[in-house]
Design goal:
455 residues; single chain; PmbA/TldD fold
């Protein structure tokens, strides 16, 4: 099929799914107080090559209808990938049967009607490709070939090309029924380099909603090769305390820990180091984080969350001060008290397009390195040593040693450690080298000082 045919077919498929969900809701409404039904259907292709040979070709087309029913403060779930009327009614009955054995929960139920997304703005998220196998293989192979053209690149972990699109539909017994389509495309390459009998592995990738905005395969392969070669000859370092730069790709994860710590679930379970920190300064006062879920064409954009609540622009951090938790309808009710009522922030299922903004000048990466003068650039992290209850942070790492504001040589086999609450307060600057491929977009982050455990 060509792209126009895919667009037409997917539009018709969305209409059919909306009709299926509307019928499911009507059936369930006769049996329970309230119901919500959702489906995420994906279609795509995944291709990998290794050393010029096609290694894997996968097609996928799947989707599961999830049904949740509520009655007398009880909740039941069931799902089916069979969208026939009989199978759906069976799933509804199964959800009701499961509900009978659950305990009453006063916080369960649909979200507030006033917050539901009865209208769905077009966020320009749908750019499907023709899912052409031959072209997909060529893209992956071109990236791999380009990387293998470098003398010190001796082996390949392969080139990988992925193209897919999804149809997302949600409806509930309050009358909300909305859907949208979104696409995703990516190309990556991973290679192994060798020098003096020692080997290193690294990768590069490009991704976009629009396949036409992917970087050229040759550029992806070249980046993978250069990153791998830069890591060759890595040395070990002594145990010390020095400034640390988290490269932009790694810095997004550092901010991601903040998102996890202010999620409603972590807060009502009292399992977060940021408990009771609303209206308190947790980042430097020159730093603001905004959530902008309606940006056109962006990876984190969505018109509504998994509760059917409309998303909206908001300050997460304003001048260093925490403004809000990230709340689903359930966690908002769970946290509400007689003194204070919380409402859903439209974050059931995740965050949407975080943007870090600084009132200070944002230096280039080279300027950030000069500002640090002496310390470590972290480009890769290993392990799961992050305790969100205490904020304690300890990860295996590799990267580069910096002296006199210049990168000197690669380093590996060391551990960086600190506490996230202190690390956030010790952010000195954020670079202008923004990582734009994820739903958290920020540049490299310079932290004043961290503990390094080396040889």
């Amino acid at each position: 099929m060509n792209i126009l045919q895919i667009k037409n077919q997917s539009y018709q498929e969305q209409q059919q799914l909306e009709s299926v969900i509307a019928n499911a809701i009507e059936i369930a409404k006769k049996k329970v107080d309230s119901v919500e039904v959702a489906i995420n259907k994906s279609t795509g292709i995944n291709v990998s090559t290794r050393l010029g040979e096609t290694e894997n070709i996968e097609f996928n087309s799947d989707g599961v209808l999830a049904i949740t029913v509520y009655q007398d403060q009880k909740k039941g779930n069931a799902s089916t990938n069979d969208l026939s009327p009989h199978a759906i009614e069976q799933s509804i009955n199964m959800a009701i049967e499961i509900m009978k054995y659950t305990s009453a929960d006063p916080y369960s139920g649909l979200g507030e009607r006033s917050q539901m997304a009865f209208e769905c703005p077009d966020l320009d998220l749908f750019y499907p490709s023709s899912l052409n196998v031959d072209e997909a293989i060529k893209q992956a192979a071109r990236a791999e070939t380009a990387a293998l053209g470098f003398a010190e690149i001796t082996k390949s972990d392969g080139g990988h090309f992925n193209s897919s699109y999804g149809i997302h539909v949600y409806g509930n017994s309050e009358g909300m029924l909305q859907g949208y389509r979104a696409s995703s495309h990516s190309l990556s390459c991973s290679v192994i380099g060798e020098r003096g009998g020692l080997m290193e592995r690294d990768y590069a990738y490009t991704s976009s909603r629009d396949i036409n905005l992917l970087e050229l395969p040759e550029l992806v392969g070249e980046k993978a090769a250069k990153r791998t070669i830069a890591n060759l000859g890595a040395q070990q370092i002594d145990t010390m305390q020095v400034p640390v730069i988290f490269s932009a790709e790694i810095a997004t994860g550092l901010i991601g820990h903040l998102a996890s710590a202010i999620s409603g679930g972590a807060i009502y379970k009292k399992s977060s180091f940021l408990l009771d920190k609303i209206d308190q300064e947790i980042l430097p006062n020159w730093l603001t984080i905004k959530e902008l879920p309606h940006l056109l064409k962006e990876v984190g954009s969505a018109p509504f969350d998994s509760d059917g609540i409309r998303t909206f622009d908001k300050d997460i951090i304003a001048s260093g001060v925490l403004q809000t938790y990230l709340l689903s309808s359930y966690s908002a009710r769970k946290l509400s008290t007689k003194e204070k009522t919380f409402k859903s922030t439209g974050n059931a299922g995740g965050i949407h397009n975080w943007r870090l903004q600084s009132t200070n000048l944002m230096p280039t990466f080279a300027e950030l390195v000069k500002m640090m003068d002496r310390g470590i650039i972290v480009t890769s992290l290993m392990g799961q040593g992050v305790n969100l209850v205490t904020g304690d942070y300890s990860r295996g790492a590799s990267g580069f040693w910096v002296e006199n504001g210049q990168i000197q040589y690669p380093v590996n086999e060391f551990t960086i450690a600190g506490n996230l609450a202190e690390m956030y307060q010790r952010i000195v600057a954020i670079g202008s080298d923004v990582e734009a491929r994820t739903n958290i977009q920020c540049g490299s982050i310079l932290i004043e000082q961290m503990s390094i455990a080396g040889k």
